[in-house]
Design a protein that fits this description.
Blueprint lengths: L33 H4 L104 E2 L2 E2 L3 H19 L9 H90 L7 H6 L28 H4 L1 H10 L2 H4 L14 H27 L29 H32 L1 H167 L1
Parallel strand pairs: 1-2
């Protein structure tokens, strides 16, 4: 049967589609809904003997269609009036406007979600003429870009306030006498702003360095974790290999020890007398369950009990047995199922392959015909239209030398006029900005004095730094001498302590090895004793199984022999009875013949 599981008439599987009808089979399908039930009653079909409170009470009650109207459904639903008592009379009712498709509904809650929070609303504002509120200085800030304000924004606001207060203290621009004071105050403010800017730059650099440091630490941690996982995987593989190797070595050791123990017992050559009482008292001994390796074969002579049949041992018996069998046994009849077109997978595949073969044959035929096909001449001759010839290139008359000189003179005059106009524009701009030019020239005149002051301050700062370096160098020398003396003592003490620590660790390790070896020895002894007990128990079980099997075979043989003996005794008794009956019948026949012959005489 295993050879025909993939054939088309013996499919591997079948698909059966069950009907999934939501309506149970015991329910009637004649009910068409509530609308069909709302029909006028026919009085001639009403039975006058039926009562509302009798067995047809269910016909006069119905559950409401509105869900969750009541917790407990009523038994009887009374018909309600169709007129709402709260409604005004029809003549006073007004038409209700149509409900729009969409409308906006607002609500106020005590809680909010941070993920759904949008940017805060900024209302429009109007300022009075001639006033500039301080709050408008924060108009450039927006939500998540300075708002809500933090420490940096507060510092910026304070600086802006100080700057506005400082601007109020500045002398006016048109006052020439206080121009130098104004310039000094502006330079001092610019210097302060540069210091603040440098601090901000340093803060940004510190933040960037901190972020970079965190990224490097994270990368180092990831690398360490990856290396640790890799080492753990390698270590686990090595441990598994070591355990398997140790187990194999332990098994080989146990086997070799057993062999040596067995050989040691043989070397001594001790002879022991057989104890007959112990052999017969133990059912696991060789008396009850002898082993085949000793030379005892329990199935020896079993060929005497083989069944010898003429129909199986001779050719004539086989022919007779084959002739006695019916035809459907020797000649199986396989009926192919009728494959419906479009549903059988085998027929589809056969048709698909047949179509592929037909297409391939057509392609081969077309290729062969193309080889012997003569190329056909062109069907239509097309005339090549030549483009029209290009027109002649136009030529310009060469001007005279006098015209060229006149044109060059006009161009030179234009350049002179344009240059003069630019010079006049520059002069007018210089006159308009003469005050600024004078201010710049005065600033350039004051630069040497400022540079001299800067050089003096730099020299003083360098002298102070040099003195600080000398003091720092002296302190470093003294610290180095003290640290060298203390380091020598600390090094000697650390060396002594490290050696003592190593010695203690070695002692602890040796003690741990000793404890581990003792524990391993005890565990091995326990394992060996357990294995020995298991083997002894298994041997007893096998001997008991062998004994029971032998008893079963012995009982089977005895019952078989008893059946054979009983059958043979019955057969011989039957044959003897038949012979005795036959002899008695012959004697009776002889006597009857003699009597009949005497009567006939």
């Amino acid at each position: 049967m295993a050879y025909v599981l993939g054939l088309s008439h013996f499919p591997n599987q079948q698909i059966q589609i069950d009907s999934c009808d939501p309506v149970p089979t015991f329910m009637s399908r004649k009910w068409q809904g509530y609308q069909t039930n709302k029909q006028p009653l026919q009085m001639h079909n009403v039975n006058p003997h039926l009562a509302v409170s009798g067995g047809d009470r269910y016909k006069y009650s119905r559950r409401p269609i509105i869900p969750f109207l009541q917790q407990v459904p009523p038994d009887v639903l009374l018909q309600t009036t169709r007129v709402d008592p709260t409604m005004p009379p029809p003549e006073q009712q007004q038409s209700r406007p149509p409900t729009p498709l969409t409308w906006t509904v607002g609500c106020q809650t005590m809680y909010r979600e941070s993920e759904a929070q949008t940017e805060p609303y900024t209302p429009e504002y109007v300022t009075e003429k001639g006033t500039v509120p301080e709050l408008l200085t924060l108009a450039s800030l927006s939500y998540t870009r300075g708002l809500p304000a933090g420490l940096a924004e507060v510092e910026m606001i304070e600086r802006a306030r100080e700057k506005r207060a400082w601007e109020k203290t500045l002398p006016p621009v048109d006052d020439v006498s206080q121009l130098s004071k104004r310039r000094a105050m502006m330079e001092e403010l610019e210097r302060k702003e540069w210091v603040i800017r440098e601090r901000e730059i340093e803060k940004l650099q510190q933040v960037r360095l901190q972020v970079l440091k965190q990224i490097l630490e994270k990368r180092e941690e990831d690398n360490n974790n990856t290396n640790t996982e890799r080492l753990n995987a390698i270590w686990s593989k090595k441990q598994v290999a070591k355990d398997s190797k140790f187990k194999k070595m332990r098994t080989e050791n146990i086997k070799s020890l057993r062999k040596l123990a067995a050989e040691r017992e043989k070397v001594e050559g001790k002879l022991s007398r057989r104890n007959v009482v112990s052999d017969y008292s133990s059912f696991a001994s060789q008396v009850y369950a002898p082993q085949t390796r000793v030379g005892v074969f329990l199935d020896r002579g079993s060929e005497l009990y083989n069944v010898k049949n003429r129909y199986l041992n001779t050719y004539e018996g086989l022919l007779e047995l084959e002739n006695s069998l019916p035809d459907y046994v020797t000649q199986p009849r396989i009926k192919l199922p009728n494959l419906i077109a479009g549903k059988g997978g085998a027929k589809k595949r056969f048709e698909k392959r047949l179509k592929e073969l037909d297409d391939t044959a057509e392609l081969i035929k077309l290729e062969k015909e193309k080889q012997f096909e003569v190329p056909a001449p062109p069907r239509f001759l097309q005339k090549v239209v030549r483009p029209p010839p290009r027109p002649p290139t136009p030529s310009v008359e060469t001007p005279s030398e006098e015209d060229e000189r006149r044109e060059l003179a006009v161009i030179f005059l234009q350049q002179l006029l344009r240059g003069r106009a630019i010079q006049n524009m520059m002069q007018e701009g210089k006159e308009k900005r003469m005050e600024l030019i004078d201010e710049l020239r005065s600033t350039e005149a004051l630069k040497p004095e400022a540079e001299k002051l800067n050089r003096d301050s730099k020299k003083a700062a360098r002298a102070v730094q040099r003195k600080q370096r000398m003091m720092h160098h002296k302190e470093n020398l003294a610290n180095e001498m003290l640290e060298g003396m203390g380091g020598k003592n600390i090094g000697q003490m650390s060396d002594f302590l490290s050696k003592e620590l190593v010695r203690l660790q070695e002692e602890q390790r040796i003690h741990a090895f000793a404890l581990l070896a003792e524990r391993k020895r005890r565990t091995r002894e326990a394992e060996e004793s357990g294995k020995r007990q298991v083997e002894e128990r298994r041997r007893l079980e096998e001997d008991e199984i062998w004994r029971q099997m032998c008893n079963c075979h012995q009982g089977t043989m005895e019952t078989y022999l008893e059946d054979i003996i009983v059958r043979s005794v019955d057969r011989t008794a039957d044959e003897q009875a038949r012979q005795e009956i036959q002899t008695k019948a012959e004697k009776i026949n002889d006597i009857a013949y003699e009597l009949e012959s005497k009567r006939g005489r």
